[in-house]
Amino acid sequence: MAKATAEWIVDGTPSIDTHECDLYRFEDAARSPKFIMQTSSQAFVEVYDIVHPHQYRSALRGLRTSPFHARHTELGAYFYEGGGWERPAWFESNAQLAQRLFDDGLAVPHREGWAARFWSPISVAEAHWTREHVAMYDMTPLTRYEVAGPGAAAFLQEMTTNNVDKSVGSVTYTLLLDHDGGIRSDLTVARMAPQTFQVGANSPMDFDWLSRHKPADVTLRDITGGTCCVGVWGPSARDVVAPLCPDDLSHEASSTSGRCTPTSTRSR
């Protein structure tokens, strides 16, 4: 740490990665006195424990849940915690699917004892089904910001590496850079309206970096807690999504236009 501090003073940037020491890396939920007290107490109790790398904290669970949490619970989700969110790792309701795939010859890694903790062969079957067919994933915990205002397009053009000044409905994968052109994060930028963009980010550090540099004619909001997100993945994903969207979602069309009309639909 002394070396990194000296390099910060002399060169402006340390030679080692210090993002895990960044004071802005914490979610809002992790900065409350109650959260700090209870998680610190758990760390004290476990100080001499051999903690499994996939073992998540037991204190203060259920702080943040998606709109689909009740349905996840009905389907027998095994939840892990990330950023205060309850996130399903696999669903016990897929046990029969897993057994059918295993009977058909799907190879499953053999795990026992320590290696089998906090893991289920069901997750292997779910990943295989996604690759071969289609599956839905609750992406609600992923960070989302709204960048809006007359200078929003110019601001994002300056802060990122790719061209995001495209038509409404376009989605662009790009990189967020530091002062020296180094990579701070990767972003997904969707243009929702002429002066409104939705940014898929990675951590509160991205919000801090954008906040430090945004001009007066740009507003930046964290909209994660007030929105939700569902990912539909797999070779049959278009068959599921196409009836819900007015655009041509074929590979040929999406590879040339790269856009999708913002729309809404009622679930049943």
Automatic annotation (TrEMBL):
Please list the residue ranges annotated as the GCVT N-terminal domain.
68-253
**Region listing for Disordered, in residue ranges:** 248-268
Compositional bias, Polar residues, is annotated for: 252-268
Q: Name one Pfam family in it.
A: FAO_M
Report the residue ranges that make up the FAD dependent oxidoreductase central domain in this protein.
11-66
- Which InterPro entries did the record assign? FAD/NAD-bd_sf, FAO_M, GcvT/YgfZ/DmdA, GCVT_N, TrmE/GcvT-like
Read off the SUPFAM superfamilies from this record: Folate-binding domain
Q: What is this protein called?
A: Uncharacterized protein
Q: From what organism does this protein derive? A: Mycolicibacterium parafortuitum
Upper lineage: Bacteria, Bacillati, Actinomycetota, Actinomycetes, Mycobacteriales
